[in-house]
From TrEMBL:
Organism of origin: Sphingobium ummariense RL-3
InterPro entries the record matches: GreA/GreB_C_sf, Tscrpt_elong_fac_GreA/B_C, Tscrpt_elong_fac_GreA/B_fam
Gene3D superfamilies for the chain: Transcription elongation factor, GreA/GreB, C-terminal domain
Protein's recorded name: Nucleoside diphosphate kinase
Keywords on record: Kinase, Transferase
Biological process (GO), any one: DNA-templated transcription elongation
Entry annotated with the keyword Kinase: yes
Transcription elongation factor GreA/GreB C-terminal domain ranges (all copies): 82-151
Transmembrane segment boundaries: none
Keyword Cytoplasm in record: no
GO molecular function, one term: RNA polymerase binding
C-alpha cells in the first residue's frame, strides 16, 4: 500500500482548535454583566475535568480561558444619567414604523432576543448620544430612527 493512503491516526487531519475570539476594543460591562461573567467563571472552575474525556475537557479549558480573560479585562461602567443614549441605558425607539426597546450592554451580555444589544453593534453606535425626540440616520436612511425614551438601567 502506498504511503499516501496511510495515516497514523484520525486526529492528524482534524482542523486545529483555536482560542475563542475576544471582541476587539474595550471590555465594558454593566454591573449585571460583571456578575454574570464572574458566575460563568465560577461554574466552569467547578467542573471536575478528570471526569471528562479529552475532547470535552479541552473545550471546557478553552472556554474557561476565554471567560477568565473577559473577567480580568472587564471595565464596569457607571450607571448613566439617562439624559442621552449611552452604555447602560434602555432606549425606546421607532424604526420603520415599529416601536422597540433595547438595553445597551457589553459584548458578552448582549442577547437581542432579550432586548440587549452590544454597544459595538451598528444600531447602538448610531443611537449613541442621541436624546429623546431626536431623529437619527441609520442604514443609509436619513432620520430612520426616532428616539422616544431613554432610561438608565441599574441591575446591580
Amino acid at each position: 500500500m502506498s504511503v499516501a493512503f496511510r495515516r497514523e491516526s484520525d486526529d492528524e487531519h482534524m482542523e486545529p482548535k483555536f482560542e475563542l475570539p475576544i471582541p476587539p476594543g474595550p471590555n465594558w460591562v454593566t454591573a449585571r454583566g460583571y456578575r454574570l461573567t464572574r458566575e460563568k467563571v465560577e461554574a466552569l472552575e467547578a467542573v471536575d475535568l478528570s471526569a471528562l474525556e479529552e475532547g470535552p475537557a479541552k473545550k471546557l479549558r478553552r472556554e474557561l480561558r476565554y471567560w477568565r480573560t473577559r473577567l480580568a479585562t472587564a471595565e464596569v461602567r457607571p450607571v448613566p444619567s439617562g439624559d442621552a443614549v449611552a452604555f447602560g441605558t434602555r432606549v425606546t425607539y421607532e424604526l420603520n414604523g415599529r416601536k422597540n426597546s433595547v438595553a445597551i450592554t457589553g459584548d458578552d451580555e448582549a442577547d437581542p432576543n432579550e432586548g440587549r444589544i452590544s454597544f459595538t453593534s451598528p444600531l447602538a453606535r448610531a443611537m449613541m448620544e442621541a436624546e429623546p425626540g431626536e431623529k437619527i440616520d441609520f442604514a443609509g436612511r436619513i432620520g430612520a430612527i426616532e428616539i422616544l425614551a431613554i432610561e438608565a438601567v441599574d441591575e446591580a
